[in-house]
Amino acid sequence: MESRERTPEWLKKRLVVKSANLSATKKILAEFRINTVCESALCPNLNECYSRNKATFLILGPACTRACCFCSVEKGSPGTIDVKEPERITKAIKSLGTRYAVVTSVTRDDLPDGGAAQYAKVIRAIKALSEDIKVEVLVPDFKARQSSIEKVLDAGADVFSHNIETVGRLYSVVRKGADYTRSLMILKLAKYIVPRQITKSAILVGLGETESEVGQVMTDIKAAGCDILAIGQYMQPSKDNLPVQRFVAPDEFERYRDLGKRLGFKSVMAGPFVRSSYMAEDSYNSMEGKYNDGSEVAAVGGRG
Ligand code: SF4
């Protein structure tokens, strides 16, 4: 694929960065040897999020066993699991003053449970620090192993997230090693196992999909019972990643927001810089609607 367009004006991010906060966040993350997806994935929001003391923790090592072409996270053979990782993360959370923690990981196809047990330990460690801290986990597909999904759900995260990332037609190019139907199955299973579990997903646009295909993937994600959706512009993180095929204009994002509301998502964020973890707390707090059993979502949060 070749890049077709120059970066438009709306993608030139103008920021007032609080540099003292930014350095403090970096220092804390370095002190506790925390990997973040913010840095590993070369996220365009890093300065903004770090200057708000926000970061997304990347567990289970820095190297991923898959090689998705849109992602710049290091690929290769991951190391052994660090048993001290949950403790290091809770120390960082304490120092950062985090009230809403977002935890994700590399894909660990080398582990029999895909890393689910480590997710569970991290969630439990954060909740042991304070029950008031909300935890959102963004998990890999665990090859749709129900036992792995159950292990994570049992630990009691407030939001269980799995990103569909792109439309089904582009999986063979963008997400080699993943499967569209299997990824939807993760969301379906989570909702099936714990009907009151808040679930979330995200997609990136600008990878070669059409607007109607985005509508279809949104419909599929909703049919999987998903509550929160995030849609953002793909930006090529490095020259080794797929080039951008199209810069999606703000009015198209607005149409996705409108469609998301019509489809019945409890919260939809759509915009050029939106990522799954971007403003995750705001996205969680802005949920509207009811659980499957009819109770209001805002009153409960997480599993009931
Ligand atoms: S959007 Fe998410 S991944 Fe990007 S910098 Fe913010 S917290 Fe990190």
The SSE string, one letter per element, is HHHEHEHEHEHHEHEHEH
Tell me the name of the CATH homologous superfamily: Aldolase class I
As a whole number of angstroms, the C-alpha radius of gyration is 18 Å
Named CATH topology:
TIM Barrel
Strand order of the largest sheet: 1-2-3-4-5-6-7
Overall number of strands: 7
Task: Write out the distinct hetero groups bound to the structure.
Answer: iron/sulfur cluster
Overall tally of domains? 1
Largest sheet: 7 strands, parallel
Under the CATH scheme, which class?
Alpha Beta
**Number of discrete helical segments:** 11
Helix content: 25-40%
Question: pLDDT average, as an integer?
Answer: 92
- Shape field: globular
| End-to-end gap | 46 Å
| Low-confidence spans | 299-304
* Protein structure class: alpha/beta
CATH architectural group: Alpha-Beta Barrel
Structure overview:
The chain is of the alpha/beta class and 304 residues long. The chain has one domain (15-285): TIM Barrel. Helices cover 36% and strands 12% of the residues. Strands 1-2-3-4-5-6-7 form a seven-stranded parallel beta sheet. Helix 10 (250-263) links the parallel strand 6 (228-233) and strand 7 (267-270). Helix 4 (85-96) packs parallel to helix 5 (116-129). It binds iron/sulfur cluster. Iron/sulfur cluster binds next to helix 2 and helix 3.
